[in-house]
Amino acid sequence: MRTTLLFFGLMILCFKMTGQTSNPDYTGKTILAVFAHPDDELYAAPVLAKYAFLGAEVHLVVVTDGRYGTGQTDLKPGSELVELREKELDCSCENLGIEKPITLGYHDQLKLQEGFFGHVPYVQNLLKQLDSIVNKLDPDVMLTWGPDGGSNHMDHRIVGASVTQIYLNSYRNNSMKLYYVGTPIDNLDAEDRLLRGVDQNYLNVRIPYGSREIQKTISAVNCYTSQFSPEKMKSRAKSIQAGPSTVYLRELGVPEDIRSDFFE
User: What distance, in Å, lies between the first and last C-alpha atoms of the chain?
Assistant: First the structure.
């Protein structure tokens, strides 16, 4: 009996020494997620919560103030709704265990209704502001929307494209990685596959998560009383609990070689 206990004791010690029983420690790593509206972070909430728990410094930038997302409220678009959605966003980040959100305060729809001379200067200013934030935080990882925008929402696609431009305009010695959140086509019906799905072959990063992240994500969802009815919150909680427990992403990487022909 004493020999058996000694054997298991040595096994446990060996596992501890090799790090096989402990979670990885990402202290010193920085993750920057950039999304369009308050509540968009829910698409990636489990991985934000996971890496914050593992020691990474996780920042969230929300570009717009959500003033047109009246959702479940009887509020009109404007400052009162903006204030409410900001409180909900703070609540979400607190439940996920990440840093207090960075809110940029741009209007929903990014002045698209004002045409070229309204929209383009507005987004150019956004690009400069995002570039300043990236230079200041110097993240190891950036996370945003791909071309599909998650739901094909115009704000999502513009924000994703803006983050991509920030990434592409400076090489940074290949130390920074950019990931797009993607929805596998197998999880969608035929029409949505075209509109917002991504084939699994392109989703080369698949991050699993567990019960801790599930509960944190559900708590974050429940912050958004302006956006989700009690019935919708229950439905989303069930979906999160029953889901694949994986966040799918596509990495935008640096080309491995320079070619001089399409078909080489």
Answer: 66
Q: Which two tokens stand for residue 227?
A: 């956006």
- Return the structure tokens found at 84: 């409410």
Alpha helices in the chain (DSSP H): 2-18, 45-53, 79-96, 116-137, 149-152, 154-168, 190-196, 211-221, 230-242
**Tokens 């009887």 -> residue:** 74
Q: What is the pTM of this model?
A: 0.89
Q: Evaluate if residue 25 carries a pLDDT over 50.
A: yes
Q: Any bridge partners for residue 208, and if so which?
A: 246
With H, G, I as helix, E, B as strand and everything else as coil, classify residue 142.
strand
pLDDT at 7 over 80: no
> For residues 38 and 84, what is the distance between their CA atoms, to the nearest angstrom?
10
Do the strands 246-252 and 205-208 form a parallel or antiparallel pair, or are they unpaired? antiparallel
CA distances from 249 to 102, 180, 202 (A): 23, 5, 8
Does residue 11 carry a pLDDT above 60? no
> How is residue 65 annotated by DSSP?
-
Q: Read off the DSSP letter of residue 36.
A: S
* Cβ atoms of residues 63 and 157 within 8 Å: no
Domain ranges in the chain? 24-252
Q: What are residue 143's DSSP bridge partners?
A: 33, 179
User: Residue 245 and residue 227: Cα distance in Å, rounded?
Assistant: 23
Contact, 208 vs 243, CB < 8 A? no
Distance CA(261)–CA(205), nearest Å, equals 28
Separation between Cα atoms, residue 167 and residue 140, nearest integer Å: 12
- Band of residue 16 on the pLDDT scale cut at 50, 70, 90: very low
Position 9 pLDDT exceeds 90: no
The architecture of the domain spanning 24-252 is: 3-Layer(aba) Sandwich (3.40)
